[in-house]
UniProtKB/TrEMBL annotation:
Key words, A-Z: ATP-binding, Biotin, Ligase, Nucleotide-binding
Domain Biotin carboxylation: 38-485
Cofactor(s) listed in the protein's UniProt record: biotin
Name of the protein this chain belongs to: Methylcrotonoyl-CoA carboxylase subunit alpha, mitochondrial
UniProt domain Lipoyl-binding: residue ranges: 630-707
Highest taxon above the source species: Eukaryota
């Protein structure tokens, strides 16, 4: 992990980095300092897929790993993967993964030489970095000066401007009074971007399209920033309409060497958060790519950077002019696609550079090859504004990893997606020789996902990756809004093939699970099965998109053959049987000369069909004993309910208050994001929830009721 012959070079390291880790200047002592920086055990101060990702590389290098976990994560995958694991507190991140003192205590107790912060949580926390240095623990990241300068966006803009990196017009001043911010907003003009000075990941970010909505958007951004970063300072920037979001991966060592590993395009976003990324960015000239890379390296050198970082740019869709947006002083979620096109292991580079080694390559030795995509698979409801979902993953079958296909995940079937953390289930990372090949493989792998218990964005990702504009590489930050009709098609009626498959799959599987049911004896999991000598008829009633679907199935005279009618349509002759595979049950159907092979899952009162277009879910009638017990609260014109599981942050009205349509009623925090729920109509508040601010609330929980007058 280190080379003792490099002591002469080490003496030339910037004074700030020496001072941070207490490294001495004497030539005779530098050799010992290098030896002391050898990393034999690393604590990963994170959870989920990134903790697992870091552990894999650490184990490859022979480094022992230490995990930390909250109450919610005691059975998590990263805990099982680690050589050691320590409990650090309750589920809320403020009491566990953001508890810097506790994590540092564990590092010292476990005798870890280094801490890898992953991304999010403490990864860009200056105070934590300083405390690590104070206690002689290596923080695997840049020096505190770089984190501080780049974490405060106003400071970073000034440094970038001085370094010759283009910046966007805006206000980055210290005067944070409402009057000053309003005046500066008017000076810059609308539309306007409001950003948390210490922000990242889309949190504490709002767009004010007009002067009239500026103050409400500013207040919302301040609240969210305070929750996420403990700071409500804001900066204002001119909002460039529908730009591209292009970022450059940079890496630097302690000896002043810095390189870039090309760019990534992260333009397609929801809620200002990335959802699909690709490398390299499509449609750029080699001249633009080179200019982006060189600007990013200048940015890294301007702040004395060490380690992995990402310089983010706003890029004009047509001219490809670009402006500095921010620098993330950590490993990014989307780093695997850079690894795929460069053949590198960036976590290995992090560990080696932190141990005092120089960069393993020069800029001219880094070669770009092929194209890669990353799809973030979330537990969320795209059709409801991408609201996050929390609960148990009753079924989780992911694509099989193979050469040039990575599945980065931190959960498995039966585990929970917690309301306290990001709802990411996995990252699907795919490489191809060119963009078309990589995209085709991405769509094929997305179709292999089988999830039940929570709604996911897999179907949306399939539609997105197949959208005509996306295929053409015409990506930008307003892509989802501009292509809403194609990405959210209105499906009023069920495809008869899907209804047929759901009914047959349900009936055959039910019979197999209950041999005592004489009605359907004789149906088999394989073709050419024995059959009864009499005809039978079954009617299966489903719900699809709140509409009734009726499927009538008659047993034919041939083995495993049926006559099927969907919603009074034409009768069709269908051959069908089930096949058990490592990926679960498959339903094989043949109609005339067409054979289909689809995944089948029956869960609770749902029948799931999985094929190349994604997942189709049909709902069976609820049993009478369950219906009698009642269900979740549902929203109506007389109530406002929580749109997602979360924590009730604030109630903005009191009983007896008069409210108008669109007026904010309460705020829910879920997965670190703020959701403001507004009144569905004019009225008077007649009832408030018994829940108090800080209490957990379920999806659909009634928070505010209005009187009966409309």
């Amino acid at each position: 992990m280190y080379n003792l012959n490099r002591y002469v070079q080490l003496v030339k390291i910037r004074k700030s980095y020496f001072t941070q880790y207490g490294l001495r200047y004497s030539h005779t002592q530098v050799k010992e300092d290098l030896k002391n920086r050898n990393i034999e055990k690393v604590l990963i101060a994170n959870r989920g897929e990134i903790a697992c990702r870091v552990m894999r590389t650490a184990k490859k290098l022979g480094i022992q790993t230490v995990a930390v976990y909250s109450d919610a994560d005691k059975n998590a995958m990263h805990v099982e993967m680690a050589d050691e694991a320590y409990h650090i507190g309750p589920a809320p991140s403020t009491q566990s993964y953001l508890n810097a003192a506790k994590i540092l205590e564990v590092a010292l107790k476990s005798k870890s030489q280094a801490i890898h912060p992953g991304y999010g949580f403490l990864s860009e926390n200056v105070e934590f970095c300083e405390q690590c240095a104070h206690h002689g623990v290596i923080f695997i990241g840049p020096p505190t000066s770089a984190i501080r300068d780049m974490g405060i966006k106003s400071t970073s803009k000034a440094i970038m401007s001085k370094a010759g990196v283009p910046i966007v017009k805006g206000y980055h001043g210290e005067d944070q009074s409402i009057e000053k911010l309003q005046a500066e907003a008017n000076k810059i003009g609308f539309p306007l971007m409001i950003k948390a000075v210490r922000g990242g990941g889309g949190k504490g970010m709002r767009i004010a399209m007009t002067e009239e909505e500026f103050l409400s958007q500013l207040e919302s951004a301040k609240r969210e920033s305070l929750k996420s970063f403990g700071d409500e300072s804001m900066l204002l920037e001119q909002y460039i309409t529908d730009p591209r979001h292009v970022e450059v991966q940079v890496f630097a060592d302690m000896y002043g060497n810095a390189v870039h590993l090309f760019e990534r395009d992260c333009s397609v976003q929801r809620r200002h958060q990335k959802i699909i990324e690709e490398a390299p960015a499509p449609g750029l000239s080699e001249e633009t790519r080179r200019a982006l890379g060189e600007a990013a390296v200048r940015a890294a050198k301007a702040v004395g950077y060490v380690g992995a970082g990402t310089v983010e740019f706003i890029l004009h869709r047509v001219t490809h002019d670009f402006h500095f947006m921010e620098m993330n002083t950590r490993l990014q979620v989307e780093h695997p696609i850079t690894e795929m096109i460069t053949g590198t292991d960036l976590v290995e580079w992090q560990l080696r550079v932190a141990a005092g080694e120089p960069l393993p390559v020069r800029q001219e030795e880094i070669v770009r090859r092929g194209h890669a995509f990353e799809c973030r698979v979330y537990a969320e409801e795209p059709g409801a504004g991408f609201l996050p979902r929390a609960g148990t993953l009753h079924r989780l079958r992911q694509p099989t990893p193979e050469e040039n296909v990575r599945i980065e995940t931190g959960v498995r079937e039966g585990q929970e997606v917690s309301v306290h953390y990001d709802p990411m289930i996995a990252k699907l990372v795919v490489w191809g020789q060119d963009r078309n090949q990589a995209l085709a493989k991405t769509k094929r792998k997305l179709s292999e996902y089988q999830v039940a218990g929570l709604e996911t964005n897999v179907n949306f990702l399939l539609r997105l990756s197949g959208a005509s504009a996306f295929l053409a590489g015409d990506v930008h930050t307003a892509f989802i809004q501009q292509h809403e009709r194609e990405l959210f098609p209105e499906q009023l009626a069920i495809d008869p093939d899907r209804a047929t498959q759901a009914a047959l799959g349900h009936l055959i599987k039910t019979q197999l699970e209950s041999s005592a049911n004489d009605t359907w004896k004789g149906i088999s999991v394989a073709p050419n099965a024995w059959r009864p000598n009499y005809q039978l008829r079954k009617t299966v009633n489903f719900k699809f998109n709140e509409k009734d679907v009726k499927v009538i199935v008659e047993y034919d005279s041939e083995p495993n053959t049926y006559r099927v009618q969907v919603d009074d349509g034409e009768w069709r002759r269908v051959e069908a049987y089930l096949k058990s595979t490592e990926q679960g049950l498959r339903l094989i159907t043949r109609v005339e000369d067409r054979t289909s092979n689809v995944g089948l899952l029956t869960y609770d009162q749902e029948v799931h069909i999985y094929d190349e277009s994604g997942q189709t879910v049909l709902h069976l009638p609820q049993p009478k004993y369950q219906a009698a017990a009642g269900g979740d609260e549902t929203a109506s014109a007389d109530s406002a309910c929580s749109p997602t599981p979360g924590v009730l942050e604030r109630i903005l009205v009191s009983k007896g208050d008069k409210v108008v349509k669109g007026q904010p009623l309460f705020v829910v925090i879920a997965m670190k994001m703020e959701y403001v729920v507004r009144s569905p109509r004019d009225g008077v508040v007649s009832e408030l929830t018994a829940a108090a601010p800080g209490d957990a609330v379920a999806k659909g929980a009634l928070i505010v009721a209005l009187d009966g007058e409309s």
